[in-house]
Amino acid sequence: MNKTYLHSSTMSDVFLCGTKKDAYIEKHRGTKPGSELILERENEVLQQLNGVVGPRVIKFNEVNKILTMTKIGTHDLSDVLHDLPIDSIPILTYKFFEDLNKIHERGFVHRDIKPGNIMVKVDNRGVYDYAGIVDFGMTLRSNKKQNEPLAIGGTKPYTHPTQSSKEFKETRTNPGQDWFAAARTVSHLLVGGSSPSFEALIKKGDGAEASNLIKLAFNRCFGSRKNDTKPLLDLLLFSVKPESESQSELMPLLHMGTNAFESLQIYSGTYWNTKNKQISFQDSSRHRPKRHDVLLIVDNTESMQSEIEFLKRQFDEIAELVKGRIDLRIDLWSLGDYSDGGKSSITPLGQRMRSDTFQQCVGDMQASVEQNDEAEAYEVALQLAYLAQPIYWNPREATKRTIILVGDSYAHGWLDREYSPWGPVVSKARGKFDKATQQRAPADPKIKKLYDDFTRRHQVYMTKDTEISEREAHSSAFKTVQWRDTKIKEKGGHVYVDGELHKNRPNYRKAIERCVEQKNAIIHTIGIGENKVSSSFLKFVAMFGQGTYTHVGNGELIIALKGIFSSVDAKIFHDLEKETLELNPTTQALNSITTFVIDSMSED
Ligand SMILES: Nc1ncnc2c1ncn2[C@@H]1O[C@H](COP(=O)(O)OP(=O)(O)O)[C@@H](O)[C@H]1O
Ligand SMILES: [Mg+2]
Question: What residues does ligand 1 touch, defined as CB less than 6 Å away?
Answer without folding.
Answer: 6-7, 9, 11-12, 14, 25, 27, 55, 69, 71-73, 76, 116-117, 119, 134-135, 137
